[in-house]
Design brief:
By secondary structure, the protein is of the alpha+beta class. The protein folds into two domains: 114 residues, no CATH class; 88 residues, Fusion Protein Consisting Of Minor Coat Protein, Glycine Rich Linker, Tola, And A His Tag, Chain: A, Domain 2. It contains four helices and 16 strands. The chain is elongated. It starts with 5 loop residues before the first strand and ends in an 8-residue tail after the last strand.
């Protein structure tokens, strides 16, 4: 079987979910005629603590064998954190790529690629204090109720503005939730890349009718 190395770069998309930054990789080659895909995709779940509060960027050099298994994965450009670099490398070492040309009889090619990886710390704020609401079935007027609040806080996590963006349908209940939320809620400072950030988010609450035994 002939040996052919194709040099290409993979597209990386970052998605942040809660406290974690997750990287999912979809391969795309500059050669539009080539069929290329992950047989075993590298998926990274990186905790915010591992990023040390900063967005990170690194570049990995990868080579696969004729069966598509990654045989070499090494850092070309470091994230600045050795433990993070090592974690990324270990994930790539477990990956597998399929690469071929549509009309070529060879089922797979060994490939050499340079893989950029971008990781973003979570932009989702965390509560320092979370409110509790006391209500009775009579307050809900016979139905389960939901409410959505639009919330803003300063760089220290202190609330500066709260308003109802989706009502429960009961003005008195809206006012109660709004008041309790503003009095009892605060956020942890949201620090990204060394800079405290103002917070803008939403808060959703659902109030369900209780059984007689829970009253």
């Amino acid at each position: 079987m002939k040996s052919l190395f194709i040099i290409f770069s993979l597209l990386v998309s970052s998605f942040c979910f809660g406290a974690d930054s997750q990287v999912q990789v979809e391969p795309r080659t500059v050669d539009e005629n080539m069929i290329i895909k992950w047989v075993k995709k590298p998926i990274f779940r990186i905790n915010n603590d591992e990023l040390k509060g900063y967005d990170r960027y690194l570049v990995v050099r990868i080579e696969t064998d004729v069966n598509g298994f990654v045989k070499i994965a090494e850092i070309n450009k470091s994230s600045g954190l050795q433990d993070l670099d090592n974690k990324i490398i270990e994930v790539f070492k477990k990956a597998k790529i399929f690469a071929k040309y549509p009309n070529d009889k060879i089922e797979n090619f060994p490939v050499r690629l340079t893989q950029p990886v971008e990781l973003s710390v979570s932009r989702v704020p965390k509560y320092a204090e979370y409110p509790e609401f006391n209500f009775k079935n009579t307050d809900l007027k016979g139905s389960n109720r939901t409410i959505t609040l639009s919330v803003e806080a300063n760089e220290k996590g202190k609330l500066t503005k709260v308003k109802v963006s989706k009502s429960t349908g009961i003005p008195a209940l809206d006012e109660y939730v709004l008041s309790e939320f503003f009095k009892k809620t605060s956020f942890k400072p949201l620090v990204i890349n060394g800079k405290p950030q103002r917070i803008s988010t939403t808060a959703d609450f659902r109030f369900n009718l209780r059984s007689a035994s829970d009253e």
